[in-house]
């Protein structure tokens, strides 16, 4: 097999609110598309605001036919569950600091999968679409991402020139998104067109674990004729931790006493800090760290709280990246073990809600044929 990388864009400047459309006019099978996005923080700070927040949608389309459609946090989480590795990402809250994050859109079970890849020539006009909203969390300016068109997008294709004969590709789509209620069931119809390799639940609300937002998750086929699972989210999360382990990233934080800092990992986060020179005479402690957040204590050797904002570099570890939970069907590398809807007429996910205001979504990875 002969492979190569094709750089389709390199640090092209994007507007603050826009969708970049890029033709995928390559003749050979594509194993993956690698995306990298950079942007600069404002002159004062950029608290609790990540690159992944401002990349609101990543799509591959063929006219009106949507082949892939996820947000950047969803894609990064899928990458972790598919590869066992955290994407390269460098969140920063520092004044004038640069932020950079990557995400890999895998069309196969793994990179250079000969059996599953996207073959652009099988479609009329395949395109990549990346949608940005710099003000998704906070308006651009001194305390957000810096004003001006300064988002930089890089896209590289991983191409197999020979030795691969893919019969289809992995199609990753958000099926539904909603804001959770305090109680009650949310029923979501799932497509029955292609086999399922996995489902992924995202349930994010700062200072809440995913299982505090959605307590139970059920998949029912043909109105309970077949029930692949009916489980507590807390138990499913423990199984995912045992299967995939924890992730780790470098995180540049800006804190003073009693600062609440948002984290990438939702469950059992663990943060260890290294001081910059401005912090040498302070003592740093942790009031708590859980549910996508750490609250810092910062004081002097005299025991006085330090209210001056300081910069520190931390290492963040944890699981349930971006507050997600994967549900795996069968053996991830063996297609004949995946959940095939053939012969059934109705697939339905049933989510039991437990807390208001959670940002909830369901993503499916299906195997789409040629």
Description:
With 370 residues, the chain is mainly beta. It has two domains: 2-166, Adenovirus Type 2 Hexon, domain 4 (Distorted Sandwich), CATH 2.70.9.30; 171-370, Jelly Rolls (Sandwich). Helix content is 9%, strand content 52%. It is built from four helices and 23 strands. A five-stranded antiparallel beta sheet has the order 1-9-3-7-6. A four-stranded antiparallel beta sheet has the order 2-8-4-5. The longest helix is centred in the first third of the chain and has 12 residues, at 72-83. The relative contact order is 0.21.
What is the spatial order of strands in the main beta sheet? 1-9-3-7-6
Largest sheet, strands/sense/barrel: 5 strands, antiparallel
- Global morphology: globular
Number of strands: 23
Mean pLDDT score: 95
**Broad CATH class of the largest domain:** Mainly Beta
CATH architectural label of the largest domain: Sandwich
Estimate what percentage of residues fall within beta strands.
over 45%
Helix/strand order, N-terminal first = EEEHEEHEEEEEEEHEEHEEEEEEEEE
Measured distance between first and last alpha carbons: 20 Å
- In DSSP terms (H or I, runs of 4 or more residues), the helix count works out at 4
* Helix coverage percent: under 10%
Unreliable spans: none
Rg over CA atoms: 21 Å
Determine the CATH topology of the largest domain. Jelly Rolls
Number of domains: 2
Helix/strand class: mainly beta
């Amino acid at each position: 097999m002969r492979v190569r990388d094709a750089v389709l864009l390199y640090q092209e400047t994007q507007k603050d609110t826009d969708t970049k459309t890029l033709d995928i006019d390559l003749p050979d099978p594509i194993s993956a598309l690698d995306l990298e996005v950079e942007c600069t923080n404002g002159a004062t700070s950029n608290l609790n605001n990540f690159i992944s927040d401002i990349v609101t949608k990543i799509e591959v389309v063929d006219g009106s036919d949507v082949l892939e459609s996820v947000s950047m946090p969803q894609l990064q989480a899928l990458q972790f569950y598919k590869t066992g590795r955290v994407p390269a990402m460098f969140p920063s809250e520092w004044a004038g600091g640069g932020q950079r994050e990557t995400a890999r859109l895998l069309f196969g079970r793994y990179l250079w999968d000969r059996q599953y890849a996207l073959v652009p020539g099988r479609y009329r006009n395949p395109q990549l679409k990346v949608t940005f909203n710099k003000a998704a969390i906070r308006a651009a300016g001194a305390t957000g991402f810096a004003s001006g068109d300064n988002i930089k997008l890089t896209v590289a294709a991983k191409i197999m020139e020979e030795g691969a004969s893919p019969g289809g590709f992995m199609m990753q789509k958000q099926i539904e998104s909603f804001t959770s209620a305090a109680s009650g069931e949310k029923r979501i119809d799932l497509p029955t067109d292609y086999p399922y390799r996995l489902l992924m639940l995202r349930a994010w609300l700062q200072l809440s674990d995913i299982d505090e937002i959605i307590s139970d998750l059920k998949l029912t086929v043909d109105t309970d004729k077949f029930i692949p699972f009916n489980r507590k989210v807390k138990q499913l999360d423990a199984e995912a931790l045992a299967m995939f382990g924890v992730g780790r990233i470098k995180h540049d934080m800006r804190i003073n006493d009693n600062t609440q800092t948002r984290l990438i990992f939702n469950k059992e986060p663990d943060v260890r800090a290294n001081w910059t020179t401005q912090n040498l005479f302070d003592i740093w402690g942790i009031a708590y760290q859980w549910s996508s957040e750490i609250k810092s204590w910062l004081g002097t050797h005299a025991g006085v709280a330090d209210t001056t904002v300081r910069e520190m570099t931390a290492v963040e570890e944890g699981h349930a990246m971006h507050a997600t939970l994967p549900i795996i069907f069968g053996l991830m590398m063996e297609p004949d073990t995946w959940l095939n809807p053939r012969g059934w007429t109705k697939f339905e996910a049933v989510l039991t809600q437990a807390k208001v205001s959670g940002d909830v979504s369901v993503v499916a990875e299906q195997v789409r044929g040629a």
